[in-house]
Amino acid sequence: MNSGPALVSILRQGDTLVASVHTALDDSEMVRFQHDLVRQIGEHRARGIIIDVAALDVIDSFASRTLRSIADIARLRGAVTVIVGIQPDVAFAMVCLGMDMGEVPTALDLEEGLAYLSRLRGLGSSHG
């Protein structure tokens, strides 16, 4: 069907899924990404989700809402989502437009996102 380069890649690292968005997605591609990622959360029994948006130079209101929805769905399935790599200009524009990621944690980059999930797991294991 689509012979072009992948728009998104979803890789498993242990019980964490790392989804990298490689280029701007239109609304239908964003919805397909959401469905693919949610399906893989169940398939891989993921406990952590990192969505890397570093390649995006725009995050519009639909994309922002969809990312928050993914995080809500993942939470209901037992996984924590972290959004990483929001570019400075994108963050500035989002703030100016009154958009944010709601309750979804964000981190500077993939390394920080993995560290965040690791810290959460450390806290969670003492309550288990």
TrEMBL record:
Gene3D superfamilies: STAS domain. It holds the Pfam family STAS. This is STAS domain-containing protein. SUPFAM superfamilies: SpoIIaa-like (SSF52091). Residues 6-117 form the STAS domain. PROSITE patterns: STAS. It comes from the Bacteria. The lineage of its organism: Bacteria, Bacillati, Actinomycetota, Actinomycetes, Micrococcales. CDD domains: STAS_RsbR_RsbS_like (cd07041). InterPro entries: Bact_StressResp_Reg, STAS_dom, STAS_dom_sf.
